[in-house]
Fold each of these.
Amino acid sequence: MTAQVGVTEGVELPHRVADPRPDAARALAELWIAVTEAGGAVDFVPGWDPEEIRDLAVATVDEVRTGGARMLVLGDDTDPVGTVFVVPGTGIAAHRADVQRLMVHPGAQGRGIGTTLLEAAVAEARDMGVEMVTLGARGGTPLPGFYAARGFVEYGRLPGGVRLSPDDARDVHLFHRVLRPSPGWAG
Ligand SMILES: CC(C)(COP(=O)(O)OP(=O)(O)OC[C@H]1O[C@@H](n2cnc3c(N)ncnc32)[C@H](O)[C@@H]1OP(=O)(O)O)[C@@H](O)C(=O)NCCC(=O)NCCS
């Protein structure tokens, strides 16, 4: 079952998948493998064992089913054009949420869909009542610039935080975007 956020005449908008259908993990894996093989920067590199990607897709959709993450898709959850996940913090981090695994099918990139999904994720986080969203972006790609151009502020870097191969480690650029002032922030 899907919870429709909204459809403007002729223009499909991302919607939240509240209850992923049985085929959703397979569909997410297909998208993720295609994005990875095209050079996308979502947990893997081209040539990665597709079984590992499928396993992570199953775990990711299970997180959605158990309420540990919210999934937004453009298109059908069994045939998505793009997707993004919003993972709420817990305990003393419950006032923030992490945006993860933003991906658009390689055949549909560069048409504004990624920007729309990112804004939908921010709107979802706002609806959840959190004060800020965070995300990490792989260095040496256009991604840090993509997020910086969309209201995210880089607050640090994890040097060599992801290893793409024995001789290629990249920084993870850490971003946040404040949604509303944090009461009682003492720094
Ligand atoms: C990054 C991504 C989600 C952007 O979605 P999109 O629909 O292609 O982007 P839009 O059309 O909304 O915006 C175009 C912007 O994306 C950038 N972009 C386009 N293709 C890209 C790609 N393959 N990788 C990174 N950035 C890309 C362009 O430089 C452009 O940036 P600018 O407007 O600041 O100049 C999409 O390209 C993608 O799925 N990439 C592979 C997966 C990935 O790396 N995800 C990021 C996880 S942190």
Amino acid sequence: MPLAHPKVGFVSLGCPKALVDSERILTQLKVEGYEIVPSYDAADVVVVNTCGFIDSAVAESLDAIGEAMAENGKVIVTGCLGKRPEQIREAHPGVLAISGPQDYASVMRAVHAALPPRHDPFLDLVPRRSNEADTDAVGVKLTPKHYAYLKISEGCNHRCSFCIIPSMRGDLVSRPVDQVLREAEKLVMGGVKELLVISQDTSAYGVDLKYAEREWRGRAYATRMKALCEGLGELGVWTRLHYVYPYPHVDDVVPLMAEGRLLPYLDIPFQHASPRILRLMKRPGAVDKVLERIRRWREICPEIAIRSTFIVGFPGETDAEFEELLDFLDEAQLDRVGAFAYSPVEGASANALPDPVPEAVKQERLARFMERQAEISAAKLEAKVGTVQRCLVDAIDGELALARSRFDAPEIDGLVQIQNGFEAGLRPGEFVDVEIMGSDEHDLYGEVAFDD
Ligand code: SF4
């Protein structure tokens, strides 16, 4: 009679980067013959992958640990909050082990100690990696099967004053380009149609490795954003760049977008547009150059969609500086924009800055900012009415197929709602040409474009 598989419960909290960590750990558990179970009752041990980015995420993570302790009692904690073990031990002294983000080896050691893997001659045939933290196997996907996050580096060399990621995750550590390309290749072989490149700072990719050259498919590639994009462009699926820092060499990848080798999409957080506020944020302050660069990108690739995020109500932000930000929106005509009212994060150096903006003023500025951008986004989407757009179907919902065009990232941007999607027999993960017939400030509406 076959032996029962040791069973692990898994709770995954946090951002897409934490999700990638969860996928890696789940992959390794599966490779070693553990069964992943969906309830505390059925689990022999529970792993909680936590987030510690803002205070509400810390509270949510501590609650999740508490629930796992109460329901199961054998709990291993990993992820961002693991960087503050004393805080976890104070609330939940009984947890079995604590490790930080990306520390797959420690998680696996803790799981082995609590629940030794079962010897299985069939599973033992699965090739083992020499370094567990260096996995490049196809992951067990928590995201829908047809898109996958591809994490190219960890940590960040910048020190933006509102952010504590460098103190939690350390300086930039890039994965060698051949390893990333092999992982991407396997994901595509496993059915992935869209790769979402993520990191804390995608444009800095490889600087820590001095842009080391590696070989993939018989060709040399530098560990550098442009070469990585060229390699990914060989895979014949959609590749989308996230978290690109506004360095000049971002210009290098825009021609690849114009050639169709990379999606014409840049997620590039600008954060503000007043040079003084940007200096206080410890970010590049040459706003004229940013606008000039955006103009150049659009010359090279006229259809490029630019997504950005901004912080309003940063300490010391005056009415005039906020107006500068609104003027920037008018000039830059960005496609998609997210914004946050500044909120102090424990440990961030910006908390020591003078002249905090009152909460009511922050909220009022946030509302004005979003209203201004909504008009811009709506006009940008309206301009697509009457065109035919290549879309990737995410889900079927009644009569509708919910899809995304090349200009929409999953979770953060809008959708293309295909009115006759069910009737047309569409399925998630399928590409389809859609005739765009309507728009609002978030979404596009259309029908499958049938050839005559
Ligand atoms: S670039 Fe991003 S991750 Fe790095 S310090 Fe700035 S906000 Fe934080």
